[in-house]
Amino acid sequence: MGEKAWQRNTLLVHAGTPQIDHIQPTALPIFPSTTYQSESAEKLDQLMAGDIPGFSYARHGNPNVQALVEAVKQLEGAETGIATASGMAAIDAALYATHVRPNDTVLVSQDVYGASLNLVGSIWTEADVKLIVADLTDLARFESLLQEHKPRSVLMETLSNPLLKVLDLPRIEKLVHQAGSQLIVDNTFTTPLMMQPLELGADIVVHSATKYFAGHGDAMGGVVLASNHYHDRLVQYVKLRGAVLGVFEAWLIHRGLRTLGVRFERQCQNAAQIAQSLLDAQVFSRVFYPLLPNHPTYSTAKHLLPPTLGGGVVTLDLGGSKDTVFRFLNELKLVASATTVGDIYTLCLYPVVASHRNQTPKERDAMGITDSMVRVSVGLEDPEDVVRDIIQAAKSAQQRDDSVIMQQD
Ligand code: PLP
């Protein structure tokens, strides 16, 4: 039976394992070589022309990088893909692949990772590319912006950061293609286990592999997946810009992928339990989780997401000020105050000083990000312990707010 016939978890554990002559270890060896000898000058000539498979120079290809790309291609249902040095390089490569040129417009969903907005807004705009930022939950306004500006490309995330809005990808895809634009979807927060954007009509999918794919907080990387239409430009991007994924990182991320199924399912279960417990505790002014009925995009989430997978992130509004959040972060004992998502450890990030630091208060306000919001990336600890830690830190931070108010009275 071919690999295509296997189901998702089987693919996670086995996909992308190359055949190696004479020996077949179950764990993929690491190939640190930067260059490869050829049997003959003729073979090297054919290899460099791309007429036969093989490896010549590590920036052009490496067995570990190829194994990772093969595995993710199968998971996302893609025809081609590349691996990059980081998630940011993956987004940059996707914009390049969609042929964004001077005088073009790129429309970016307002709810993306702050650095993705900055990439287009500061680097691509230097090449005379115009950035438009739009709320993709307002489809009527989005459609009129598409018709007015005819952007070359649209960039969005499946689950927004940090408010965890689920965008209506099938409807967005139709509007984007009606306007003659291309759709790039960042699937980092959802992983192919929750959503497969290419099957829902996206043109290119990107991941920060640093997150759930690697999973253990020890490797940085990105991947870009697409149809063959984008193959040549994607390959050109890594070969010429050189933002290739390192061999050791490729090996770690590929190994991480093997356990993504069990890790991600457990993280989703834990996140759902933590969100419900924190809501019941009534310590926070708001608790955001896509599968909680009070979430603004709950009906889209019910329709688009698998019933038990709402993602591994919970966002909380503590109420109070920046000082309250600082005290909360300093009071955490088990949960680490750290950036990133998707690790096995539960991590808490303060968007105002980290992911959305470069957005102005007005821009953050438009995105719905308050000064007292924190994002929790749920790990694999017992959820009761995480809840206990978060509640004690929140109560302690809020109590001191109360005592300051009483002293002022
Ligand atoms: N996309 C999303 C949704 C992210 O959260 C991040 C990083 O936090 C990135 C892309 C960038 O990834 P990296 O840090 O691997 O460059």
Topology:
Layout lengths: L7 H7 L26 H8 L14 H14 L3 E5 L2 H11 L7 E5 L4 H10 L6 E5 L4 H11 L3 E5 L11 H10 L3 E5 L4 H4 L9 E5 L13 E5 L4 H11 L5 H12 L1 H22 L4 E3 L9 H7 L8 E5 L4 H10 L4 E2 L9 E3 L11 H7 L5 E5 L5 H26 L1
Helix pairs in contact: 3-10, 4-9, 6-7, 11-15, 13-15
The structure holds pyridoxal-5'-phosphate (PLP).
Structure description:
The chain has 2 domains: 3-257, Aspartate Aminotransferase, domain 2, CATH 3.40.640; 260-408, Alpha-Beta Complex (Aspartate Aminotransferase, domain 1). It is globular and about 80 Å long. It has a 7-stranded mixed β-sheet with strand order 1-7-6-5-4-2-3, sandwiched between helices. Strands 8-9-12-11-10 form a 5-stranded mixed β-sheet, covered by helices on one side. The model has no long low-confidence stretch (mean pLDDT 94). Helix 6 (139-149) runs parallel beside helix 7 and helix 13 packs across helix 15 (383-408). The termini are far apart. Helix content is 42%, strand content 13%. The chain has 409 residues and is an alpha/beta fold. It contains 15 helices and 12 strands. The protein has helices at 8-14, 41-48, 63-76, 87-97, 114-123, 139-149, 169-178, 191-194, 231-241, 247-258, 260-281, 298-304, 322-331, 361-367, 383-408; strands at 80-84, 105-109, 130-134, 153-157, 182-186, 204-208, 222-226, 286-288, 313-317, 336-337, 347-349, 373-377. The chain binds pyridoxal-5'-phosphate (PLP). Residues 86-88, 113, 116, 157, 161, 186, 188-189, 208, 210, 220, 222 line the site of pyridoxal-5'-phosphate.
